């Protein structure tokens, strides 16, 4: 029995899928203690859009540490926070003509989700929330309440209230007018469902199986919320910060949510950080009404500022589009061609290979396990974990991206022969 099995809780999960001791990492490559290298198509579940130990971001953090910069500051004014706010306001909000207040929440995405739900209910004086089938929003109680997966909610008996799940445009629902259905529910005095304070949604259900919401659907959802005086909250935790190309994933629809939740790659370096962007008229918090000891991660401020500076000086958004075209072509021509029962979905640098009708969960697991043996880290997602989710760092070079995809193809070949 190793030290992890002896001392660490049974709740550990990813280490069971990738059974080695990782030691160092650079860019899109991770190395274990024996020196074996692995191409990273997981990227910290989306927390490493800029890869491992990005030189520019790392050097900015090291310089700050060497200067004995503030390491912990609660929500006090600090130079690190000042620089981040100025850079985010200049290069993201002002550049995109968005008017949001920025709330620094606890260190992870679920903390910002909780803040959004709490504020929406306070603003509207209404406890109800609409979420969507297939949604994933986090592991604390409020976030679990709006998460659809029954398995991860099993231990929360009797605590998940005031949430109604609506159909997302997926599966047989793709030919069903889900927005019209929601509208009918809200207008029908006998529907038995009260109008909510807010509707929370993901533009791409990542953990839900890489399900991309159509542009028209998002536009109609925004219009529906306006017509019924309901707040629209966009959870951009996993697919924001450039994952779909633009900085915010909702930009392609030309909509403006009332609140936006950011985490994962916002710090640029995998450091804990989460933000809630709030339209100014909704910022009705009393001082200290929602707080937390680690809501001001100073090193994350430095990393986030450096990441925004890097975005300014690079062609990252164009690079993502180029790699998107490669992934789309490769997956459709080399993987989907194996069987008409394999479905490819995705956008930007997040793609899913759905094998629910071609071997199901065991086959998907066999593929990711074989990938790991061949030197590729890739995970599963979706209903019953039947979707192989491709999530490389945005900065991965084309050679490494192609090499990783060839490993994926080899894994399919090997598993089909067994």
TrEMBL record:
Q: Does the keyword Isomerase apply?
A: no
Q: Where is the signal peptide?
A: none
Pathway of this protein? Amine and polyamine biosynthesis; ectoine biosynthesis; L-ectoine from L-aspartate 4-semialdehyde: step 1/3
Looking up CDD domains in the UniProt record yields: OAT_like
Record EC number: 2.6.1.76
What the entry lists under InterPro entries is as follows:
Aminotrans_3 (IPR005814), Aminotrans_3_PPA_site (IPR049704), Dat (IPR004637), Ectoine_EctB (IPR012773), PyrdxlP-dep_Trfase (IPR015424), PyrdxlP-dep_Trfase_major (IPR015421), PyrdxlP-dep_Trfase_small (IPR015422)
Q: Which cofactor does it need?
A: pyridoxal 5'-phosphate
Top-rank lineage group of the source organism: Bacteria
Sorted UniProt keywords: Aminotransferase, Pyridoxal phosphate, Transferase
Name a GO molecular-function annotation. diaminobutyrate-2-oxoglutarate transaminase activity
Known SUPFAM superfamilies for this protein? PLP-dependent transferases (SSF53383)
PROSITE patterns named among the record's database cross-references: AA_TRANSFER_CLASS_3
* NCBIfam families attached to this UniProt entry: dat, ectoine_ectB, PRK09264.1
| Homology family | Belongs to the class-III pyridoxal-phosphate-dependent aminotransferase family.
Question: What's the protein name?
Answer: Diaminobutyrate--2-oxoglutarate transaminase
| Originating species | Calothrix parietina FACHB-288
């Amino acid at each position: 029995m190793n030290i992890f099995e002896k001392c660490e809780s049974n709740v550990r999960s990813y280490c069971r899928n990738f059974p080695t001791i990782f030691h160092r990492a650079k860019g899109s490559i991770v190395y274990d203690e024996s020196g074996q290298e692995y191409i990273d198509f997981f990227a910290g579940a989306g927390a490493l859009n800029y890869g491992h130990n990005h030189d520019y971001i790392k050097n900015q953090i090291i310089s700050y540490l060497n200067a004995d910069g503030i390491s912990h500051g609660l929500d006090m004014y600090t130079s690190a926070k000042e620089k981040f706010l100025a850079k985010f306001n200049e290069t993201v909000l002002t550049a995109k003509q968005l008017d949001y207040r920025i709330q620094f929440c606890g260190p992870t995405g679920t903390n910002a989700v909780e803040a959004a739900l709490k504020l929406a209910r306070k603003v509207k004086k209404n406890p109800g929330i609409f979420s969507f089938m297939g949604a994933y929003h986090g592991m604390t109680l409020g976030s679990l309440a709006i998460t659809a997966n029954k398995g991860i909610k099993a231990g929360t008996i009797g605590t998940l209230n005031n949430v109604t799940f609506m159909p997302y445009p997926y599966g047989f629902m793709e030919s069903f007018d889900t927005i019209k259905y929601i509208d009918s529910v809200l207008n029908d005095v006998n529907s038995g469902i009260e109008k909510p304070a807010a509707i929370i949604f993901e533009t791409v259900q990542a953990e839900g199986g890489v399900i991309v919401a159509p542009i028209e659907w998002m536009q109609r959802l925004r219009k529906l919320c306006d017509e019924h005086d309901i707040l629209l909250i966009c959870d951009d935790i996993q697919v924001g910060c450039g994952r779909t190309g633009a900085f915010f994933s909702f930009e392609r629809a030309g909509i403006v949510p009332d609140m936006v939740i950011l985490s994962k790659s916002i710090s640029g370096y995998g450091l804990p950080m989460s933000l809630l962007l709030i339209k100014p008229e909704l910022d009705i918090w009393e001082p200290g009404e929602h707080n937390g000891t680690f809501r001001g991660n100073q090193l994350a401020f430095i990393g986030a500022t450096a990441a925004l500076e890097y975005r300014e000086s690079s062609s990252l958004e164009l690079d993502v589009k180029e790699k998107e075209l490669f992934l789309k072509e490769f997956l459709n021509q080399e993987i989907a061609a194996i069987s008409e029962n394999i479905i490819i979905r995705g956008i930007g640098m997040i793609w899913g290979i759905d094998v629910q009708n071609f071997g199901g969960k065991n086959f998907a697991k066999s593929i990711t396990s074989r990938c790991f043996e061949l030197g590729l880290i890739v995970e599963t997602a979706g209903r019953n974990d039947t979707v192989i989710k491709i999530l490389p760092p945005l900065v991965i070079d084309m050679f490494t991206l192609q090499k990783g995809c060839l490993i994926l193809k080899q894994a399919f070949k090997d598993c089909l022969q067994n």
